[in-house]
Design brief:
Elements (H helix, E strand, L loop, with lengths): L3 H6 L7 H9 L5 H8 L8 H9 L5 H30 L3 H10 L41 H19 L1
Helix pairs in contact: 3-5
């Protein structure tokens, strides 16, 4: 079942069956999680996504965050927390989203976990946009405005040089 935050932010997001099975198996931190934590293939960007798709291995959220912090330091920790939040909202982590987009192996919910909803298309001929009045842009300044502005600018420069 999707998390409450996922429903509140995205009512169409439904976690994929693999994600649901992985969340059901997250009963605690076990030996498998310890192996996932120390396995560098689970924490190297891009490699980890390919590794998980090729082996079918799953990693728990705690092991993922701890391992990313172990191998990536503060940047790894922050990116892992962000990826976990992304997964909580959309149902897929960022790596799985990119993998699905590039490989084309995706279901009807789209790469981000959003349900495919029919888009309403409005023909351009039916759009009525009122343009703002921009006639003030074509007004020409008085003939003596430019020389007066240049003289004032010159006086300001002279004062700043005299102060130095």
């Amino acid at each position: 079942m999707p998390a409450l935050a996922s429903i509140a932010l995205n009512p169409y997001a439904t976690p994929q069956p693999a994600v649901q099975a992985a969340k059901a198996d997250e009963s605690g931190f076990g030996f498998d999680d310890l192996l996932d934590l120390v396995n560098p293939l689970q924490h190297i960007p891009v490699v980890s996504t390919l590794y998980r798709h090729l082996t079918g291995d799953k990693i728990g959220t705690a092991a993922k965050i701890a391992g990313d912090a172990l191998y990536g330091g503060p940047i790894g920790f922050l990116s892992s927390v962000g990826d976990s939040l992304f997964e909580q909202i959309t149902g897929k982590n960022l790596g799985d989203t990119v993998y699905a987009y590039l490989s084309g192996e995706d279901d009807q919910t789209g790469a981000t976990g959003l349900a495919a909803a029919p888009a309403s298309v409005i023909p351009a001929s039916n759009l009525h946009v009122t343009m703002p009045d921009l006639s003030f842009l074509s007004d020409t300044p008085d003939s003596d405005t430019a020389p007066r502005a240049a003289a004032a600018y010159g006086k300001t420069l002279l004062r700043s040089y005299e102060a130095v």
